[in-house]
Amino acid sequence: MPVLPQPRPGDILRIKDRPLEFSFWPVERTTRRYGLGTRVFATDPWTVIRRSAEKRCLAATRDAAYALIEQAEDFYRAAESGVKAAKPLLLYYCFMNLAKAFILACRQQADVNNAQHGVSEKLNAVPNPAELTDAYINAFPSPNAQGQLQNFSELLQALTGTGVTANPHRYDLPHLMPQVVPGHRLWVQGATGGMKERFVAIERIEFRHDAPAKTLWLRLYLFADDLRRIDMTH
């Protein structure tokens, strides 16, 4: 077995003498530059979400954002307390309403009342019309030719800065399933020939940097036995 390469030399990234904790959004932009966000302590995320909408929305869109957040919370609580078979649909509508509220909070759009889902499920044409294995999802640019907003593309733009560009953009379901925690297990159990799990537990993630070289990277700490479980070695 080959010897593992040595880790890249560098130090833990510290800001104000404190290690920067991992986040997809470790900093936020102020009026002049990027800086650390405020640490949030909360037992109820819905209160934090409402407070964020209050702070970030324009006065003209604030009530609409509140209504969307209230609907999202109702769908979430129904999913947590309801029938398991209905849970995926309820969670979908929960996150769709949250996405629309987020679009308003980002001031990307001023009205999302008539926005469409922006995605549709399709099957390959004959002779390959099998459910699941030949299924795919089309995503559409926003607005469409009729001027209607598309939720998926609007959310993608709010998160990444770029919405759906192809019309449509195709996502094959067999490629999506392994990347989603609930769908991943179904994919492992249902795939022809049996597939190995791809999810592993991460103990912690560190931001590290080399100040003279002005480089920044992530170091992930994994559990060795979790890698052995899926037959991954160096």
Task: Report on the architecture of this protein.
- The protein is an alpha+beta fold and 234 residues long.
- The chain has a domain at 40-111.
- The chain has helices at residues 45-56, 59-81, 87-105, 151-160, 173-176, 181-190, 224-229; strands spanning 11-12, 14-15, 18-19, 27-29, 34-36, 119-123, 135-139, 169-172, 202-210, 215-222.
- The strands form four sheets. Strands 1-9-10 form a three-stranded antiparallel beta sheet. Strands 6-7-8 form a three-stranded antiparallel beta sheet. Strands 2-3 form a two-stranded antiparallel ribbon.
- A hairpin with a 4-residue loop joins strand 9 (202-210) and strand 10 (215-222).
Task: Give a brief rundown of this model.
The protein is of the alpha+beta class. It has helices at residues 45-56, 59-81, 87-105, 151-160, 173-176, 181-190, 224-229; strands at residues 11-12, 14-15, 18-19, 27-29, 34-36, 119-123, 135-139, 169-172, 202-210, 215-222. Strands 1-9-10 form a 3-stranded antiparallel beta sheet. A 3-stranded antiparallel beta sheet has the order 6-7-8. A two-stranded antiparallel ribbon has the order 2-3.
Please describe the structure with a list of short key phrases separated by commas or semicolons.
3-stranded antiparallel beta sheet, alpha+beta, 10 strands, 234 residues, 36% helix
